[in-house]
Structures are given as C-alpha cells and as structure tokens.
C-alpha cells in the first residue's frame, strides 16, 4: 500500500491558501518545573477551537469546483466536522457530517451552528464509513478527516510554525486519533528540522498506535472504551495511515485518564488554557515523564471543544 510523502511545496502552498482562514497560533512556555522546557502550541485558539480547520480549509479549497458544488461530507466526533462545515460555508456549499452518536453536545451544536446537516451513527459504523468513503443516505464529495493528502498538508503548516518560532525544539508531541495531526505536524517540522523527534500520545483506553508499534504492523486495540478523550484514540490504525506515520513518528506514549485530568487542570491553573481531553494528552505524557527528550518539548494543544460543566467536573476530580 503506497502513500506519497507530502512535499514542502505542497505545505507552503497550503500555508498561503489557508492564511486568511486560520490563525497562526501562539507558542507559549508552560511555567512549570520539569526536566525539559515544555511549550504549548495553542491550536485551541483557532476559530473552531481545533487544529482541524487547517486541514479542512485546505482540503475543501483543493476540491475541483464541480466536485465541491455537489456538497461535501465527512465523518467526525466533532472537530473535523466543524472544520469541514466552516470551510463549506465559506464556499457556499452544503455540508453533511456523519457524527459519532456519543459526540459531546457542545461539538454537535457547534457543527449545527455552522450549517452542517448531522447524521448520527454508532462508532463502528462511522469507522467503516471512513474506510469506504460512503454512508447510506449521504451524498456529495467525501472529505476524509485524516487520510487525505490535502488535509495533511494543511495540518503540516503547524509544523512549519513550530520550528520557525522555536528553532531549538527537540521533540513534538501530539494526540493520535486517525493520525492526520501527527503525520502533518511531523512532516512539516521535519521538512525544516530533520532531527526533531515526533511522539504520538494515546489514552490507555484506546491505544492502537502503541499496539501497532509493538506488532510492527497496523493493529487493532483490544478493549477499546469511549471516554471523555473523545477526540483521540481509535479502535485500530488504518493501514494507509500506518504507512504515513511509520517514517515520521519515532514512538508512542500511553497515558492514564487520571493523568489526562491532571494535565487539563495544570493547563487551566498555570496557563489559563481550556483543553479538551485529546488536547491535554501530550501535556499528560510530558508531565508524567513518558516523553524522553534532549531539549524543549512542544505539546500540541489540539483542541478546546469541551462542555464547561464537563471540564469543571474533570479538573475538580483530578488528583
């Protein structure tokens, strides 16, 4: 199964293409004693409060007009759906999101507010829809939420920004869902700094990348559970995404749900940052010593779409 690496030319073109849509998010130091300096790439500050706008804006813009005018659709627990809906609205075309039925209400309402038609389905059916690029009763042009060259090129613009803002970066850590964020940020960063380490972080309840590294091939994760870390952690690694990640990602780390809660609390107390569960994963790994680095670590805060009541409950219960 052959995949083509994303070229620096494609990434730079994506940066120009989406410049008027996305925010060049700040990179701030977490003021906390740690073996290595920890910096936060605040993608929760994007207009949809998630990095997904980068890839979605580029992918929708790159569609031939005749395909875009058919309308677009995607599969999402919320953040990719918001990104595609936001981009579709800018082009004046309809958008449908096949939404995982356990998606948080705040993400559902935000997708609906952006004009998306929502079709709810169980997780397994959504996963199959992503594999096949089709879903009963849904028409239009499918925009894959992670296994798409243009989506990944948009995500990769973040890697360029990180290296430009912190040339001394030694390690970049990001959450793993489908792998589009990790592949993108790693490709972008490595195009400017080939020796930067790339670490994927997963919750203990959904860690297929770790299982894949252990097996040396794309693998499923036994005992998958739905949790508040809804923006990361699939049931398996898609074979094409394994081929994309294998040359880019150095290792994977697994954190407990309690470690994620503590990281969410630290981010709120020390940096006044609201991070959803997936957004706090890399900070959880860095603070728990599960990321080894020879220099500064950049943690991608991939999103902040979480109901405030849920957020307060989680950080209050953090030990």
Which terms summarize this structure?
single chain, 6-stranded mixed sheet, 4-stranded parallel sheet, Rossmann fold, 13 helices, 319 residues, alpha/beta
Q: How many domains, as an integer? A: 2
> Can you tell me the CATH topology of the largest domain?
Rossmann fold
- Report the structural category: alpha/beta
Instruction: State the strand order across the main sheet.
Output: 1-2-10-7-8-9
Number of helices: 13
* Main sheet specs: 6 strands, mixed
CATH architectural grouping of the largest domain: 3-Layer(aba) Sandwich
Residue share in β-strands: 15-25%
Work out the number of β strands.
10
Distance between the termini: 45 Å
Overview in brief:
This protein is of the alpha/beta class and 319 residues long. It contains 13 helices and ten strands.
Describe this structure in words.
This protein has 319 residues and is an alpha/beta fold. It has helices at residues 8-18, 52-62, 65-68, 79-91, 105-113, 123-132, 149-165, 180-192, 208-215, 239-245, 257-271, 277-287, 308-317, and strands at 27-29, 38-42, 72-76, 95-100, 117-121, 141-142, 171-175, 197-203, 251-255, 297-301. It is globular and about 55 Å long. It starts with 7 loop residues before the first helix and ends with a helix. The mean pLDDT is 94.
Topology:
Layout: H1 8-18, E1 27-29, E2 38-42, H2 52-62, H3 65-68, E3 72-76, H4 79-91, E4 95-100, H5 105-113, E5 117-121, H6 123-132, E6 141-142, H7 149-165, E7 171-175, H8 180-192, E8 197-203, H9 208-215, H10 239-245, E9 251-255, H11 257-271, H12 277-287, E10 297-301, H13 308-317
Parallel strand pairs: 2-10, 3-4, 3-6, 4-5, 7-8, 7-10, 8-9
Antiparallel strand pairs: 1-2
Helix pairs in contact: 1-7, 2-4, 2-7, 7-8, 11-12, 11-13
């Amino acid at each position: 199964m052959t995949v083509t690496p994303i070229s620096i030319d494609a990434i730079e073109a994506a940066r120009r293409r989406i410049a008027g849509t996305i925010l060049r998010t700040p990179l701030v130091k977490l003021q906390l004693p740690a073996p290595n300096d920890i910096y936060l790439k605040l993608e929760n500050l994007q207009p949809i409060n998630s990095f997904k706008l980068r890839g979605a804006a580029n992918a929708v813009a790159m569609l031939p007009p005749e395909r875009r005018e058919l309308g677009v659709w995607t599969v999402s627990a919320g953040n990719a759906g918001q990104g595609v809906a936001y981009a579709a609205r800018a082009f004046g075309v309809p958008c449908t999101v096949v939404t995982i039925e356990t998606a948080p209400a705040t993400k559902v309402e935000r997708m609906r507010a952006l004009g998306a038609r929502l079709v709810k389905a169980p997780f397994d059916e959504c996963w199959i829809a992503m594999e096949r690029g089709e879903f009963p009763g849904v028409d239009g042009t499918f925009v894959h939420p992670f296994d798409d060259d243009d989506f990944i090129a948009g995500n990769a613009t973040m890697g360029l920004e990180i290296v430009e803002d912190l040339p001394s970066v030694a390690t970049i850590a990001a959450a793993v869902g489908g792998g589009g964020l990790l592949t993108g940020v790693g490709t972008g960063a490595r195009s400017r700094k080939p020796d930067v380490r790339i670490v994927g972080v997963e919750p203990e309840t959904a860690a297929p990348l770790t299982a894949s590294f252990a097996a040396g091939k794309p693998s499923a994760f036994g005992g998958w559970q739905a949790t508040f870390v809804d923006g990361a952690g699939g049931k398996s690694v898609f074979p094409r995404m394994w081929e994309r990640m294998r040359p880019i990602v150095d290792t994977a780390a697994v954190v407990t749900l309690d470690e994620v809660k503590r990281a969410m609390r630290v981010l709120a107390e020390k940096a006044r940052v609201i991070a959803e569960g997936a957004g706090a994963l890399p900070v959880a790994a860095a603070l728990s010593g599960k990321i080894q680095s020879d220099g500064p670590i950049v943690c991608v805060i991939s999103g902040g779409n979480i109901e405030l009541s849920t957020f307060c409950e989680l950080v209050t219960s953090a030990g």
